[in-house]
Amino acid sequence: MNRRQQTDGSLALEQKKVIVIEAAQRPEAQKLRVAAYCRVSSDSSDQMNSFAAQLNYYTTLINSKDNWTMADIYADAGISGTSAEKRPDFQRLLSDCRRGRIDKILVKSISRFARNAVDCLKTIRALKAIGVGVCFEEQGIDTSEMTGELLTAMFSAIAQKESESISGNMRWSYQHRMKSGKFITCKAPFGYHLKDGMLEIYEPEAEIVRMIFDQYLAGQSKDEIAAHVTTLGIPTRDGNEYWQHSSISYILRNERYVGDALLQKRYTTDTLPYRKKMNHGEREQYYMPQSHPPIIDRETFNAVRELLDRRSITMPRHERDPLALKITCGACGAPFRRTVCSQKTYWVCRKHYKSKHNCSMEQIAEDEIHAAFLRIYHKLRLHGEPILKQMLSDLQSVRERRMLWSMDIIELNKRISDINDQDRMLADMNKCGLVDPDIFISRSNDLAHQLRTAKLEKERILGAECDDTIPRTRELMETLETLPEFLPAFDGEIFTDLVDGITVDSGNILRFRLKNGLELTERVERSVR
How far apart are CA 212 and CA 208, in angstroms? Predict the structure, then answer.
């Protein structure tokens, strides 16, 4: 092929035209759905003013951007930032992000978002994976940018150190006030209210406390007293409608009711995430006699103490043996009874004990039951928290779905939507200069208060379910936090606090039913008689 033919071929290729087919419909530029998260960690008036100012600021900012649209304002007031689980609106924000309702989140600073570096990075990575960016205004960080996560790691570490420093200072302050006798309790026990930092007798509950002491001295058991108080419809200090054996025991042994105070029964760990643990000698304790008005006179209190100690020795075996009336046969449903053979203790199905023909379930050694419980206990301490949290989350989801079409919830959702509409309209009017600044701030604060009240009312209704599984699960999680990480031997009191019953199934399987209804299984090797 000569040079001319090659040139003509190249020109022919260059002269080929590409026909562009215009789009029939061009998509309109979508507005970013922007949310803001605000938080203050104190209920003081100065902090609450700052809280209202943050709400007003973000409402105005988001509505001032042409390419932004308000998704929602999420706000937690008077809540610490060291734990994400304890911030309800923060959890609602994450839930809405997962549902695809938000594109960008505005936050004043990293310390407002999280003071735990691990939680902060975990949350930001999860949000980034679903296309949601977080803007930290104070640090000038946008996590949607490539360098955002690296900077976030640095600033969240700083925020965590700040939190640890503050917590350390607070612990030192508590310790100093305990030693000097000037410590003020932050939570009043049942029967008392806090007034100006001092415990005052709250007579409606104090009558219940006196009744509990009187009934115990009259010979009633703790379970009988708990059942009676439950029928009165008076919740415990933690809001639980059902009084337990442990609730009565705590009141009968609590020195607060005689006017004294034992300080630092629990202590907080030094590192994040902070956990409260029972003080089994790891920290100093401080006893303050006559620190507040007594509900029970000292003579009655000492008499109850003596009776408690006496009953722990002389009461019937079925009351002082933690396994008594707790073990059920999975084959016939009969309870197990205790028996001793060759100086070794066994538990056996009552029907099998009378005749092997009545039930085929064989006896099981008590030490094997103890060993199985210890294995269950250590699994709970190591892995129980995420399981119980997931169970709690599932229970709450089911409850919310069941309540979704309740007329009260529908009305509250309408009210919340109406308040949000008013807030947006007010922000638009302020943007156009149609409202006086003082009136704008006053009305914004009023709407913020109405919104918060409506959301709290909605949460109250959702929490008013008659099913007590959710509060029992929370109580079980709190109980686990107070127990030792390692249990060297079987402890009857801990067993009673955690386990509601045991079912013995064929195949050497024990089913431990926890206080919240959750069942955990453990295989054992039987010792046959």
Answer: 6
